[in-house]
Each structure stands twice: as structure tokens, then as C-alpha cells.
Design goal:
alpha/beta, UDP N-Acetylglucosamine Acyltransferase, domain 1, Alpha-D-Glucose-1,6-Bisphosphate, Chain A, domain 3, intramolecular phosphotransferase activity, transferase, structural constituent of carboxysome shell, cytoplasm
Length: 842
């Protein structure tokens, strides 16, 4: 006997699982549904199978081939142009059906007794026998009514609630005589239930219904898909398992490694080559595909996990469906009913709310909460902008497509015909992204002044001279060398405000993008003498005579960055004796280890040449590390204090701007010079804005961010800082070592610890509520201060990661160590308490 396996369905209601798979190839217990049906046919000695295909036909043909590996003979009939319907596709293979044959759906789960149904068909001498099942809710199915002799009397295809007249429904499994196909037209779409069976009734052909008591589940929607797996695991349907039953209710494939501390509750199915980490909790009903990795302490409550999935440590995965190749990072939380399409990435501590569907190849950013279906676009993010701009992995997150869309989103917030500048560092990946950005801007009718590869301080200086409304700078991230950083700059050269960031984000996420007409498309210009403008400003704000008369010898390590093409020209112009190291341009970023090696070499060169100082320039001309005469590095808080000391000595009663977490040495130095200190949020934008707002500010920033000289331009500038250092050392007739000995002795320590996104706000509220208000400073994070001394503790949430930073500052090292230890414990206790509450609520 031959069977026609109907396998052409696209499974619209199962999307996103069926975005790249035909419905019959969706796995149940790690085998395609169609394979379970073929195994059922084999059990009843039906081994000649004709599969009718339409949607993604090659997937099934490639999997089953000629059927020999599965113990059957497979033939295929593909509906090339249009679907022919359930009956039309069978009519299409009529020449292969010369005897009684079976029609069965390839996208349901069942263990029908087909032999009994065939015997019933023959006994009744039926022309068409329908295998029927009783279901509690027949609304989604074709209802059938039969008489006492099981002869069919009436059909109703998918009735409304008021039309239901029986709970006996058509399962899509039929035993037919070949002559019934003569009633069907050739190459036309037609359906068994709507067209053929009513016609057979009308013609008086004998039609019977065989009511099966066996299991049947039409896997028509995502909830039914999960339920069919649970039913199979609990033995409600007889199927062939792909793996050995290692212990009652636990099936495990070959070469799978399970940590002894993992807790597994039967029934569970685990595929081949899986790796289950320590203390993983796997509850009953869980199905795990082949080549799956599950990190330590993950919590799996009955999810359906396909092949090649990676689950991070402490992730919570509850009664959801996860398609092939998905990556779920640590502490992510995927709730019940979620469906993730193939190759998605769920970031660290992201949350996907109940019932959400995510289409293939999407990215959910770390810490994001997704509560709507993600169908279009590539990413679900908490936001685009971080502490400093837009950042992501080069050519993975920050791709040409992303840059085009972001450029169009930015351009859409500007007036038609506006002009912006764009610049970049020397790397090819930055060129690629900046060109894509230019295309996006032009598409919205915005013109572009392209400054090409240049140091960021030059961009900030040039922007106010170009009559542009803003600018963009693309570069490798200063501290994450596989990441790109895109910074947006306003018309003054300062990073744009939060309000403008939100406007660009809104345009990007809503896809509210302006499309200019052909005559309105933007143009690209290449301004000349960009370096001249910077050089002129440089000269105007420097004591040229002091620099020219300086006999200082300086060694400068440019670390293969673009500033190496700029600063030697300027220093040469002022007659400086500068020894240049590593000034050639490089496409690859230096690792931290390589940078430290160069810093050690710089120290050795300074000592050997008896130079006055050495400087290593970083971050596209923004940041620097000093090396004193003895070859010892000066960086971080010491560098901040040293620069404040030198500028306050040169400009008594002036003001400096530093981030909230900078050492209190700054205040002590300011008191010596009758000066003022303004503390700001830790973000670079806040430092730039504060440095511009007060006309008395002579220095902004820190050793960590770089230094701002507001009279020059609003940004950080390591190149001008070097020239200014030469000037001040000459005028003040001091060495770096001498200045270093004058600095206040302050102990300043920090510690970074993990803190979930969902706990950060509650942690800040807890700290505010548990301290007297006169001891609190709330510039950024929560700073607990001692009003009588310069001692303080700052708890500062990270802007871009699920982290919190704790800083302790004081004159006494023991006090700092105790304070840091105490607040680490307080923060950890609070996080543990909050997560315990979340677990109870969940």
C-alpha cells in the first residue's frame, strides 16, 4: 500500500520556527515531525511514500533522500507555481495511485492504528474513509457527523462556536480508492474537506468515518507544538525515541557530558554531544537538542531547545521554544511561551516577556527587556547610546547596514539641506562604517563635510569653523579593541545632549526615516586646510616663546595611531626637541599587553636619553600617560592631580572640572591655590558641558578620560596637553618628579562588581534611604561623604554594563580598606536579597 505524505505546509502559525523550515521538518523530540509519521507508516508496513512538497521543498528532500536510510521508498512531487490544496496535490500524483492508498499529514503527531483503519475501510467497502478524533474544542477543525453505522452524514469546516454540532473532527488522515480522484479537476487548487468530500456526499458515494481512540495532536500553533513534546515525553503517544533511555524517563544521546551536580527531573530528553554544567537544574518536560551547551547554574523549566544552542550561566529558560544556533548569555531570563527563531542572540541579563516571538538572526542587547514581537530590524536594545556614544562589536553589531540606518536616523532629525561633518581614525573598518554613514545621511537630504582620517581633537576644533549643525567621529573603542565607537558631536564640538540622543534613538527604532527626492539628495564635500585651523588655534593658546626657548627633551609614543601624523608637524613648527616612537599608522589595535610593553620601552628610552619626560598618546589623540625622568609612568588619579597642580599653579583662583569619582587630592590642591572644583557626572559629555559653562575653568577631565582645555576646544586633547606640559614645565622651572612629590597623599581605591539591571535602581534607593541626607551627594550614583574630612565612598552604577563601581577615598589607608570592604558587602547583600525576592515572586 502507498501513502501520500502531505508535506507542503509553510506553518505560518508556527513562525518564527518555520521561517527557514517547512512545517513537517520542525523537530519533535529532536526528530522532524515527518520522520515520526514515516516511522508510524513503517510500523503498519506502509513503505512506499510519495511526499507532496511546496514550501522550501529541498529541506525535506535533502533530509530523507530516497528513503533508504529510513527503511522506506520516498518519491517527491513539488507544486512549483502555486499550492494546489490538500486534494489538488494528491490529484497531481494520480498516475502513481492505482490501488487503495493512504493520505496523511506530515505535520501532526499521532500513533493512529492505521492497520485497523484500513481494515475498517475494506470491511465497509468505502470509497473514502476519514480517520476521526474526538477533541474538547473543535472550533479549529473540520467537524464530522456520522450515523450509527459510521457512515458520514455531514461536514462543517472550522465552525464558529455557535455552529458546533459534534466533538468528532477530521484529522486529515484518509484512506481512499483511486477512483475518487476522478471527481477532481487537473492542476487546480482544491481541498478534500471543502470540495471533494461534499461532492462525494452529493453523489451518494459510500464514505465512512473511523473514530480513533489513539493520540492525535494537530501541531497548528506554538502552544500545541510544546504540548505535543510534553505528551510524547510522558508516553501519551507511541513514538520511536532517537536516544537510549538511560534511566526511567531520561533519554540521553551519545557523547554527552553532564556534571554530577546537575539536577535532572524525569521525563527529560538530552541529545548527542551536549555539555551540561555544574548545578544546572533541568525540570520535567525539557527537550534538549544535539550539540547544546548549558552553563553552570542555569535553570531550565520545560523548554524545547533545538540543536546547537548555547545557554549561559545562571540563565532562566522557562517553557519556551528555542530554535537552532541561538545564543543565550548569562543571567538572561526567557519566560513562558517565548519563541526564538534560528541564530538569535540574547544578551546578558536581557529579559524576554511571556509569549514574545523573535524572528531569526535578531540580537537582544544586554539588559534589554523585550515585551513585543521582534520581526523587523536586527536588534532589540535597551538603547543605542551608551556613556560615550554608540558602540558595538566591529562588523558584527556595527555593520554597514546598521551604519546606513543610523545615519538616516540622525539625518531625519535634522532639517533638509543641513550639513554635518564626519571623521574617523585610520582603520579600514572605520572607513567602511563612515562611508555607510555618509550614504545614510545623504539619503535624508543632509550634506556631508568629510574630514577623512584625523584625530578627534582636530574634528572638535574644526566643527565650529565649518558652519555645520554637528558631526560624527568613528573609531576603534579606546578600551575594547574589537569594538567600534561612534560619537555624535554638536555644532560647538561637544558630544550631543541626552535629549538629542533620545531623538535619534526614536527615529532609529520607529524607523521614522526621511527619504529625500532625487534633487534633494545630500552632497559630500572635502574641506581643505583642516589641520591649519587646528594649528592656528594651537598657537593662539600656547606660550610659543616658552616652548621655543625650552630645552626640554620629550619622547612621544604615538602607539601607531593617527595623532602620530599630526603632532610631530606641530611640535616641529615650535622648535621642540621631540623623539618620536611608533608614529606609523596601523590597521590593528594594540592589546593592553602590547600597550604596556610599549610603555615600558618608552620609560627605558626616556631614561637612556635623559629626557625630561615621555608621553604615550592613546584614544585617537584624546588620552595620554606620562613617564617621568626616571622612566616611571604617571597615570590615573596621580596624573589628574599632577595636571590640576600645574594648571592651578599657572592660574591661581581658577576652576577645574573633574568627574564625581576623582580623588579628593583635587580639592586639596585647589585649596592651596584658592581655586574651585566642579564635580560632574562620570560621562565625557557632562565634563565637556561643565567645562564650557563656567568661564573661569582652565582644565577639565581626568587621567582616565583625558584633559579638556576649554579655551582651545570643548573636547579632550592629548596633543595640546603635551605642548602645554612643555610650556608649564619651562615657565615653572620644575620637573615632573618634583611636582609629583608636592601632590597630596590621598588613598583612592575602587572595586567593580556585578549588579543586575533590574536591581540598580532599587540599590540606589536603598543607599539613599539608609544614610542621612546631609551625608549624601547625588551628582552621579550615591556618594556618602564625611562633612568634616575629605573621606567618602561612592557607589556608581555602570552606564553600559550590568555592573556597579564602588570607590573609597580618604587620607587613611585603613579607613579606605574598611569602607570598601563594608560597602562591597552591603551591595552584595542587597543584590542577593532582591534576587531572592524576584525568585519567590517568579
Amino acid at each position: 500500500m502507498r501513502a501520500v505524505l502531505m508535506a507542503g505546509g509553510s506553518g505560518t502559525r508556527l513562525r518564527p520556527l518555520t521561517c527557514d523550515l517547512p512545517k513537517p521538518m520542525v523537530p519533535v523530540l529532536n526528530r522532524p515531525m515527518a520522520e515520526h509519521i514515516i516511522n508510524l507508516l513503517k510500523r503498519h508496513d506502509i513503505r512506499e511514500i510519495i511526499a507532496t512538497l511546496h514550501y522550501l521543498p529541498d529541506v525535506m528532500r535533502d533530509y530523507f533522500g530516497d528513503g533508504s536510510e529510513f527503511g522506506v521508498q520516498m518519491k517527491y512531487a513539488v507544486e512549483e507555481d502555486q499550492p494546489l490544496g490538500t486534494a489538488g496535490c494528491v490529484k497531481n500524483v494520480e498516475e502513481l495511485l492505482d490501488d487503495t492508498f493512504l493520505v496523511i499529514s506530515g505535520d501532526s503527531m499521532t500513533d493512529f492504528d492505521l492497520s485497523a483503519a484500513i481494515e475498517f475501510h475494506k470491511q465497509k467497502q468505502s470509497k473514502a474513509t476519514l480517520v476521526l478524533a474526538r477533541v474538547p474544542n473543535p472550533v479549529e477543525f473540520g467537524v464530522v457527523i456520522t450515523d450509527q453505522d459510521h457512515q458520514i452524514k455531514r461536514f462543517l469546516e472550522k465552525p464558529s462556536s455557535s455552529e458546533i454540532f459534534s466533538d468528532t473532527v477530521n484529522t486529515g488522515t484518509y484512506i481512499l480508492e483511486p477512483e475518487v480522484l476522478r471527481y477532481l479537476p487537473d492542476q487546480e487548487e482544491c481541498d478534500f474537506s471543502k470540495d471533494l468530500f461534499p461532492l462525494l456526499l452529493e453523489k451518494g458515494e459510500p464514505m465512512y468515518g473511523y473514530v480513533s481512540e489513539e493520540y492525535w495532536c494537530d501541531v497548528g500553533h506554538l502552544e500545541a507544538y510544546r504540548e505535543s513534546q510534553y505528551d510524547a515525553l510522558h508516553g501519551k503517544v507511541k513514538i520511536d525515541f532517537a536516544y537510549e533511555e538511560q534511566s526511567p524517563g531520561i533519554w540521553i544521546g551519545e557523547n554527552s557530558s553532564i556534571d554530577p551536580s546537575a539536577n535532572i527531573e524525569a521525563p527529560v530528553l538530552i541529545g548527542n554531544n551536549c555539555r551540561i554544567g555544574a548545578r544546572v537544574n533541568i525540570e520535567a518536560g525539557t527537550v534538549i537538542g544535539d550539540n547544546v551547551t548549558i552553563g553552570a547554574e542555569a535553570d531550565l523549566k520545560s523548554p524545547i531547545i533545538w540543536n546547537g544552542v548555547i545557554i549561559g550561566e545562571q540563565a532562566h529558560i522557562w517553557a519556551c521554544s528555542i530554535s537552532r544556533g541561538v545564543r543565550v548569555d548569562r543571567r538572561a531570563h526567557i519566560q513562558e511561551g517565548v519563541t526564538l527563531g534560528a541564530l538569535c542572540t540574547v544578551g546578558e541579563e536581557a529579559q524576554i516577556s511571556q509569549g514574545v516571538r523573535v524572528w531569526p538572526s535578531k540580537q537582544i542587547e544586554s539588559g534589554a527587556t523585550l515585551n513585543i514581537n521582534l520581526i523587523w530590524g536586527n536588534m532589540a536594545q535597551r538603547n543605542l547610546f551608551g556613556q560615550q556614544g554608540v558602540t558595538g562589536i566591529a562588523n558584527i553589531d556595527i555593520t554597514p547596514e546598521f551604519a546606513v540606518k543610523l545615519g538616516a536616523a540622525y539625518g531625519s532629525t535634522l532639517k533638509l539641506g543641513s550639513t554635518v561633518s564626519i571623521s574617523r581614525d585610520q582603520r579600514s573598518v572605520s572607513r567602511m562604517v563612515s562611508r555607510s554613514f555618509v550614504a545614510g545621511l545623504m539619503s535624508t537630504g543632509v550634506n556631508v563635510q568629510n574630514l577623512d582620517a584625523t584625530a578627534l581633537p582636530i574634528t572638535r576644533t574644526t566643527i565650529p569653523t565649518l558652519s555645520v549643525v554637528g558631526g560624527i567621529h568613528v573609531r576603534l573603542h579606546p578600551t575594547r579593541h574589537d569594538h567600534l565607537l561612534i560619537e555624535f558631536i554638536d555644532e560647538q564640538g561637544i558630544n550631543i545632549s541626552k535629549a538629542k540622543e533620545k531623538k535619534i534613538e526614536g527615529s532609529y527604532f520607529k524607523e521614522d526615516l526621511r527619504r529625500a527626492q532625487i534633487p534633494e539628495i545630500g552632497e559630500v564635500f572635502y574641506p581643505a586646510q583642516v589641520l591649519d585651523a587646528y594649528s592656528h588655534s594651537f598657537e593662539n593658546h600656547l606660550n610659543i616663546e616658552a616652548v621655543n626657548n625650552s630645552r626640554a627633551k620629550v619622547v612621544i609614543d604615538y602607539a601607531y595611531a593617527v595623532s602620530g601624523a599630526v603632532l610631530p608637524l606641530l611640535l616641529g613648527k615650535f622648535g621642540c626637541d621631540a623623539v618620536v616612537l611608533n608614529a606609523s599608522l596601523s590597521q590593528t589595535a594594540l592589546s593592553n599587553e602590547e600597550r604596556e610593553t610599549l610603555l615600558n620601552e618608552l620609560g627605558q628610552v626616556v631614561e637612556a636619553l635623559k629626557a625630561n619626560m615621555g608621553v604615550q598618546v592613546a584614544a585617537n589623540g584624546e588620552q595620554l600617560i606620562l613617564v617621568d625622568e626616571a622612566g616611571l609612568p604617571i597615570r590615573g588619579e596621580i596624573l589628574t592631580a599632577l595636571m590640576v597642580n600645574m594648571m592651578m599653579t599657572a592660574h591661581p583662583r581658577s576652576t577645574v572640572v573633574v568627574p564625581v569619582h576623582a580623588s579628593s587630592a583635587v580639592e586639596q590642591i585647589a585649596r592651596r591655590h584658592d581655586g574651585n572644583v566642579i564635580r560632574t557626572k562620570a560621562s565625557p559629555t557632562a565634563l565637556m558641558e561643565a567645562s564650557q559653562q563656567d568661564p573661569n575653568v582652565v582644565l577639565g577631565g581626568s587621567g582616565e578620560t583625558g584633559f579638556i582645555f576649554p579655551e582651545l576646544h570643548p573636547g579632550f586633547d592629548a596633543m595640546f596637553c603635551i605642548a602645554k606640559l612643555i610650556e608649564m614645565l619651562t615657565v615653572q622651572e620644575r620637573s615632573l618628579a618634583e611636582i609629583r612629590t608636592e601632590l597630596p597623599r590621598v588613598c583612592h581605591k575602587s572595586y567593580t562588581m556585578r549588579c543586575p539591571w533590574t536591581v540598580k535602581g532599587a540599590l540606589m534607593r536603598y543607599l539613599v534611604e539608609t544614610h542621612p541626607s546631609d551625608e549624601l551627594e547625588l551628582i552621579d550614583g550615591v556618594k556618602v561623604i564625611d562633612p568634616k574630612t575629605d573621606n567618602w565612598v561612592l557607589v556608581l552604577p555602570d552606564a553600559g554594563e550590568p555592573l556597579v563601581h564602588i570607590f573609597a577615598n580618604g587620607d587613611d589607608r585603613a579607613w579606605v580598606d574598611n569602607a570598601l570592604r563594608e560597602y562591597r558587602q552591603r551591595v552584595q547583600d542587597f543584590i542577593d536579597q532582591e534576587q531572592g525576592v524576584e525568585a519567590v515572586n517568579a
